[in-house]
Amino acid sequence: MPFDSLNHFIKRLENQGELIRITEKVDPELEITEITDRISKQPGGGKALLFENTGTNFPILINAMGSEKRMKLALEVNNLDDIGNELEELFTDLSSPKNSILEKIKLLPKLSGISSWMPKVVKGRGKSQEVVHYNPDLSILPVLKCWPEDGGPFVTLPMVITKDPNTQIRNVGMYRMQVFKDNLTGMHWHKHKVGARHFSEYKRLGEKMPVAVALGGDPVYTYSATAPVPDNIDEYILAGFLRKKSVEMVKCLTQDIEVPKDADIVIEGYIDPEEDFIWEGPFGDHTGFYSLADWYPKLHVTCITHRKDAVYPATVVGVPPMEDAWIGKATERIFLTPIKMAILPEIIDYDLPFAGVAHNIAIIKINKTYPGQALKVMNALWGAGQMMFNKIMIIVDQKVNIHHYEELVDVVLDNMNSSHNIHFMQGPLDVLDHSSSKMAFGSKMGIDATTKFEEEIPDELLINKNNESLNIDDLKNEFIEITDANIFTTARNNGVLILSVKKKNKTHIENLVKKLFHSEGFNQVKMCVLVDDLVDVSDWDLVIWIASGNIDPKRDSFILLKQDNTHSCIFIDATRKVKGKDNFKRDWPNIVSSNLPTIKWVDKKWDSYNIGKFISSPSLKYQKMLYRGGAIAGE
């Protein structure tokens, strides 16, 4: 049965032992984030938190979808793969030939079900409009300031509803909103997003753009706003399919647009395309780094409505894993079927590791039947929807368990020849990617780790039967810039080496790797990743997150091949890039971390929260990795 409010979902969470109520008064500025960060990084995502004393009339629900179990509760399924299986069955039934009247009649109930999922506008006011504030004041809401360098408080879980002025097709997107005044926010939509395209159309027409922002209601609504639904498809159609009931919409009171009648809170407003933009940010983002300030449209708030018993939903993003990682995992499972059926039938499965923050790393498992198929899959996916933002794609074949990362690393190292099986291309990147030389544009790396057909093996390639092992201590003694090292090797003695280094200048890394390649025992290493000296190389999740975030793959990779073709290695420069040492023209952001006063404050108050055994702050790990300069990392 679909949820009709956040309170309805809260009751389900509580009945399942998935909710902690906190009655102690908490501050929406920094304190709630610090508590949530400690809980959400617990194994399996911790528990959902309901802060009942926020200094406003609204409790805050946070981390509500921050685990696999809670995602399944939100979507009302036993397994996240169930939704994809249902989609596959539905597509198959609708597209298969019908040879008799009886077969066609049997299809009618499914067609009737589909029609019942479509959003519909109903008359009158909804529960979301029980209380009306015609003189809107956003300070009545417990809007979070999440991290110390944030530009201000942000609405972090908004369903931003817009319409194409020409077609009237609705879009529901998740775009953060910085609060500047009681009736003014920013609207942080990126150039690739549908909301931004709608805005451009209003600007072309010279018309003000009506906008509605819904908060809460059925958690399926929130999930659907994050989902990579194809352009010109209403996200509330997906929501109707997921909840098996249409989303009923009501007209806003001050804008010509509709909102779910059972949302908890609604913010109505407009954007004037003729107005100057506002300087928005910084914001501690889901990449684990600050997204830096930039110019974005202004949303003028004209009305706030809400339920009498409304709950304010929020999320906190930062260094993974946090709640958004589990929302992304649901997307991974749900959209596997559409990818297979509409784009690449050879895809068996895929995995988006938490450390890759959704768009940095994708692992694709295919049914390989001919030479070059891995490259075909890479190119097709890089041209498909939000996969265009992917930066590192690894292709394996059908025998690999891609969700078992240790096994995966074995396969990649054993099946990859660095000089022949690593491919680069240029393309769009996520606006939040901080490592590319140009904003939102850079390179991508594809690794073909499939078992090779004879046609894919170069004639000149010789198999290296080296049985030597690299001596880490000798390496550190030989190269004084290496501060620490860690190596992982397969049963076939192929290794990935992680080095932390003190970089001196732009050419330092390139000169260092050329010397490393000829070091004794280095034939064991197929991949070498170099990170800054502040990075703990024993923490693999940390290294993967830092490395995938800090590289423009083509610019930062060096592939070296021995003259006798017996050994090749890819060196990846995952150090931060700065103007002085690297001639990097853009500002480089700092890692998202709490500050020491907030950490100590939460430490002191921990027992009063009544949320169990003391948990130390995850930010203590990142404090030593920060650079001076605030959101922008200084040199």
Keywords:
nine-stranded antiparallel β-sheet, globular, UbiD C-terminal domain-like, 635 residues, five-stranded mixed β-sheet, alpha+beta, 28% helix, Pnp Oxidase, Chain A
Helix content: 25-40%
* CATH overall fold name of the domain at 116-314: Pnp Oxidase, Chain A
Discrete helix count: 19
* Terminal CA distance: 55 Å
How many DSSP E strands?
30
Structural class: alpha+beta
- Indicate the mean pLDDT: 93
Any idea what the shape is? Answer: globular
Q: Name the beta content range.
A: 15-25%
- Give the biggest sheet: 9 strands, antiparallel
- Tell me the CATH architecture of the domain at 116-314: Roll
Query: What are the segments in which pLDDT stays under 50 over at least 5 consecutive residues?
Result: none
CATH superfamily of the domain at 116-314: Electron Transport, Fmn-binding Protein, Chain A
Radius of gyration using CA atoms only: 26 Å
CATH class (first level) name of the domain at 116-314:
Mainly Beta
Task: Characterise the protein shown here.
By secondary structure, this protein is α+β, with helices and mostly antiparallel strands. Among the domains are: 199 residues, Electron Transport, Fmn-binding Protein, Chain A (Pnp Oxidase, Chain A, Roll), CATH 2.30.110.10; 128 residues, UbiD C-terminal domain-like, CATH 3.40.1670.10; 111 residues, UbiD C-terminal domain-like (3-Layer(aba) Sandwich), CATH 3.40.1670.10. It contains 19 helices and 30 strands. Strands 5, 6, 7, 8, 9, 10, 11, 14 and 19 form a 9-stranded antiparallel β-sheet that branches. β7 and β8 form a beta hairpin. It is globular and about 80 Å long. 48% of the residues are buried. The model has no long low-confidence stretch (mean pLDDT 93).
